[in-house]
Amino acid sequence: MLFTWWRNRKRRKILASPMPGHWAAILDQNVAQLSRLTEAQRTLLYQRVQIFVKEKYWEGCNGFEITEEVKLTIAGQACLLTLGFATDCFDRLQTVLVYPDTYVAREEMLNSIGVLTEGTSFRLGESWGQGPIVLSWESIREGGQIPDDGRNVVIHEFAHYYDAIDRQFNGTPLLSGPEEYRRWNEVMTREFQKLVSQVQQGQETFIDPYGSTNPAEFFAVCSEHYFEQPCLMQEYSLDLYETLRMFYRQDPARQY
Ligand SMILES: [Zn+2]
């Protein structure tokens, strides 16, 4: 309670100064979706970007320098996800780590027959539940400048953030009641299975095949398509679009 009061006070202070004038040009260039927002959404996005940039701890990895452009590009793309929510600035997220390009991560995986494989993998980004979000700048910039290819690593990782808010990384974010959970389970399970079977049969898929990895990746990949190709998603599956709209509480297809 006291913390919320203190945080809100700090946020009011941040918003008391207008956003620096040159920020809008950087955001326009690297967050292509901005051109489709309504005036009210744009104002809200600017406010959330100001808070995001100021509140998070930013760290460059492998010698990468965190510039104003890096912060604004990440904050701008991430805050697109929040526009339907009354108050949300990814409050639980404290740290954003940025690598210059794809980075190598050590990992251990237990496969279905119980064998632990240790190795390395090349990654574009990752989200650690309540921990930091890790991103690669090369893919962020590309993702922001091409607004309609259905690929955006920032949207992907921040969708994972929402998934993990209830501490269960299972492809289901926090919803508002039993009816929403029922609908989410019904539609997302059906659509996930549809994608898995399309991939198994070697068919061309609208949803990126990476979404067939597991329900958590399915939600993150669908979020990328939802914000980047909302009309195509409606054509592919209106149920899927409407289910994501139920969670994100915004209607990007109306802005096309
Ligand atoms: Zn993922």
UniProtKB/TrEMBL annotation:
InterPro entries: MetalloPept_cat_dom_sf, MtfA_fam, MtfA_N
One cellular component (GO) term of this entry: cytosol
CDD domains in the cross-refs: Peptidase_M90_mtfA
A Pfam family per the record: Peptidase_M90
Superkingdom field: Bacteria
Annotated coiled-coil segments of the chain: none
One of the record's GO molecular function terms: metallopeptidase activity
PANTHER family: MTFA PEPTIDASE, PROTEIN MTFA
Protein name (Swiss-Prot/TrEMBL): Protein MtfA
Native species: Gimesia algae
Protein's gene: mtfA
